[in-house]
């Protein structure tokens, strides 16, 4: 909850604060879109099977997103 802040102003500035659209973020939080986790190795094998080569990666420590750089 936002105390002492204008909610309209907060929503308008949300994209600069989080880098996401406010309403899209709400839909994600509410579970409108299915989410399925895949392991680092499974994703890597999937793209290598499609003739991509992994150039660089950053593995998430706990929660967060893994980052991949592939080259075809």
Task: Please describe what this structure looks like.
It contains 3 helices and 2 strands; from the N terminus they run αααββ. It is of the alpha+beta class and 72 residues long. The chain folds into 2 domains: 35 residues, no CATH class; 36 residues, no CATH class. A hairpin with an 8-residue loop joins strand 1 and strand 2. The chain is elongated, with a radius of gyration of 18 Å. The N and C termini lie far apart (46 Å). The mean pLDDT is 84.
Layout: helices, strands, pairs:
Elements lengths: L6 H12 L3 H9 L9 H10 L3 E6 L8 E5 L1
Helical fraction equals: 40-55%
- The oligomerization state is single chain
Query: How many domains make up the 3D coordinates?
Result: 2
Radius of gyration: 18 Å
How is the main sheet built?
Answer: 2 strands, antiparallel
Helical segment count: 3
Helix and strand element order:
HHHEE
Measured by DSSP, the beta-strand proportion falls in 15-25%
The span between the termini is 46 Å
Instruction: Based on Cα principal axes, name the global outline.
Output: elongated
Structural class: alpha+beta
Note the main attributes of this structure:
72 residues, alpha+beta, two-stranded antiparallel ribbon, 3 helices, 2 strands, 43% helix
Offer a quick outline of the entry.
This protein is of the alpha+beta class. The protein folds into two domains: 1-35, no CATH class; 37-72, no CATH class.
């Amino acid at each position: 909850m936002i105390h002492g802040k204008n909610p309209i102003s907060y929503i308008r500035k949300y994209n600069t604060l989080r880098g996401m659209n406010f309403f899209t973020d709400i839909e994600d939080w509410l579970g409108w879109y299915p989410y399925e986790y895949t392991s680092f190795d499974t994703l890597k094998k999937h793209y290598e099977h499609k003739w991509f080569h992994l150039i660089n990666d950053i593995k998430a420590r706990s929660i967060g997103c893994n980052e991949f750089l592939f080259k075809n």
